[in-house]
Specification:
Distance between the termini: 33 Å
Bound molecules: 2-acetamido-2-deoxy-beta-D-glucopyranose
Number of strands: 20
Shape: globular
Largest sheet: 4 strands, antiparallel
Strand content: 15-25%
Number of helices: 14
Length: 494
């Protein structure tokens, strides 16, 4: 779905005698540089000399001055007690806020025109089809060929330049210095469990194998389908760069671990023409999306599970895309752990995190100099992620672990709570964090994890963050308690 308002608008304005400012004639300056090549990638020679004549679709994403306003509105509509709580924006309202100034579009177009390129305007970006050789001259850069450990290759320009007077209106040019987010399959160092039998008694701790039934017991949502009616508008969204889940694997998983969900399917929505055709997926690019989809379907079906297929764009552009999707889904998932070096602490987490750093953490002193004290602290929450089971490429495994194992579980539980709320005529929770930090965490909506730790990488030696009472940098507020969370949301939020 491409928006064409600018393509319609421009000729009209030009017809009225509008003359774009003479931009793009200023001297070039480096616009963006990637300092190092990501792990698992290496430069290789372009032996066939194919790069120069390769045609790419070069996209100039333009700055959206409304983003700070959008942030404020998001905060207001997500903060319990705020008069606009739950008043989510419509896609049209979002479009209007994120609109790119017409003068920015005109400036980039006229600069491209002066180099002989007719561009196409789509929503917040201007695009041209151009050879790599011409791109090198347009952006004063050099593309090189790189190869990933999986064998995939990519043409990347580590650093590129733009005329100085375009710096303030262009946000990013792609494809330039972005490496495709490929991952090697991650089988983290978890001991391989004994082969287990399908019908054995459910282990409510999930210690042996993390399955949909033990998770439902652990987080207390096993009765959710009888607990409240299913609202058809409620949905969950799943996204992984360069991935397509596989129905054959999903079916095997459901048959073994969620027999009551056999027949559950996902709906694929393509971003920028990315393939939704499962058989076009690279076998190395199905694991993560398969895992997520198997877990969200097991926990949330018959709510709609939407998969966004994106084989061209990065994560930030995905988020922008998803909020513009007319039928956008209600729950998005992601994960991580630590203190951000780049993002500042949010107001909604200041009290909890300062309390942890000042009073509760035995590690604040010890880790001094190794973390940015004022940074955005995470995680916000935690969920079980050990010996998770899945099917991928027909192969059954029960030794997957990590943040990406716990995020679909937490997201699924929030989806169930949203379903309950929608069926009661209430608003979906939307951006969750102000509620988590002001109500759910302090009032017992989560199981506070007080044991265990997160260890740093090799370079920081034995530095770690230990779990303590209340919010901590190892497990956040803890793991979800479905009924308690649902009750706190229903009692406190309109
Ligand atoms: C660009 O568009 C103009 C007007 O539509 C056309 O005359 C010209 O040939 C086009 N140039 C290129 C390079 O496609
Ligand atoms: C570039 O070429 C492709 C393939 O012909 C086409 O689908 C796409 O719309 C073109 N993009 C631009 C910006 O002209
Ligand atoms: C999906 O891709 C496969 C392999 O490229 C192709 O044979 C098949 O026709 C495609 N299916 C659809 C529905 O486009």
């Amino acid at each position: 779905m491409y928006f064409s308002k600018y393509t319609l608008l421009l000729p009209v304005l030009l017809g009225l005698g509008y003359v774009p400012a003479a931009r793009g004639s200023s001297p070039y300056q480096v616009f963006d540089t990637l300092d190092h090549i990501p792990d698992d990638w290496e430069e290789i020679p372009d032996t066939q000399n194919t790069l120069p004549s390769t045609v790419i679709e070069l996209e100039f994403s333009l700055d959206q001055p409304g983003i700070p306003q959008l942030e404020q509105l998001t905060l207001d509509m997500s903060t319990p007690g705020n008069p606009s709580y739950g008043q989510h924006l419509t896609p049209e309202e979002m479009d209007a806020i994120l609109e790119v100034p017409q003068s920015s579009v005109a400036a980039v177009q006229s600069w491209l025109e002066s180099h002989g390129f007719n561009s196409t305007v789509r929503n917040d970006h201007v695009a041209i089809n151009i050879t790599i050789e011409d791109t090198e001259s347009l952006l004063q850069t050099t593309y090189k060929l790189y190869r990933h450990a999986t064998g995939r290759t990519a043409a990347v320009a580590l650093s590129y330049s733009l005329p100085l007077d375009l710096h303030s209106i262009v946000e990013v040019v792609e494809p330039t210095n972005g490496f495709p987010a490929l991952k090697r399959r991650r089988n983290l160092n978890v001991a391989k469990p004994e082969p287990s039998r399908i019908m054995k008694r459910i282990d409510p701790t999930c210690d042996d194998e993390m399955t949909p039934s033990c998770l439902a017991v652990l987080y207390k949502y096993e009765d959710w389908t009888t607990d409240f009616p299913v609202a058809p508008e409620n949905k969950i969204a799943v996204y992984c760069d360069h991935n397509i889940p596989q129905t054959a694997d999903i079916n095997k998983y459901l048959a073994e671990w969620a027999p009551d969900k056999v027949g559950a399917t996902y709906e694929c929505i393509s971003i920028h023409g990315s393939s939704c055709n499962e058989s076009t997926a690279d076998p190395d690019e199905t694991f993560e999306s398969n895992f997520d989809m198997q877990h969200t379907l097991s926990a949330t079906w018959p709510y709609k599970n939407i998969y966004y297929s994106d084989r061209t764009l990065g994560y930030s552009r995905f988020l922008r895309r998803i909020i513009m999707e007319k039928s956008f889904a209600r729950t998005i998932e992601w994960g991580g752990s630590g203190f951000s070096k780049f993002l500042p602490r949010h107001s909604w987490q200041a009290t909890a995190v300062n309390n942890y750093l000042d009073n509760k953490s035995p590690d604040t002193q010890d880790n001094q100099g190794w973390f940015v004290r004022s940074g955005r602290a995470y995680p916000d929450v935690a969920a079980r992620a050990n010996r998770a089971c899945n099917y991928d490429q027909g192969k059954r495994d029960c030794f997957f672990a990590g943040t990406s194992a716990s995020t679909p579980i937490f997201a699924s539980i929030i989806t169930l709570i949203n379903g309950d709320r929608i069926s009661k005529g209430k608003k979906p929770l939307g951006f969750l964090n102000p509620f988590l930090y002001s109500i759910a965490g302090p009032q017992g909506g989560l199981t506070d994890i007080t044991g265990g730790r997160v260890e740093g990488c090799v370079q920081v030696g034995d530095k770690r963050w230990r779990a303590t009472e209340g919010w901590d940098a190892a497990t956040g507020w803890g793991s979800p308690k479905f009924h308690a969370l649902k009750k706190l949301a229903n009692d406190n939020l309109p």
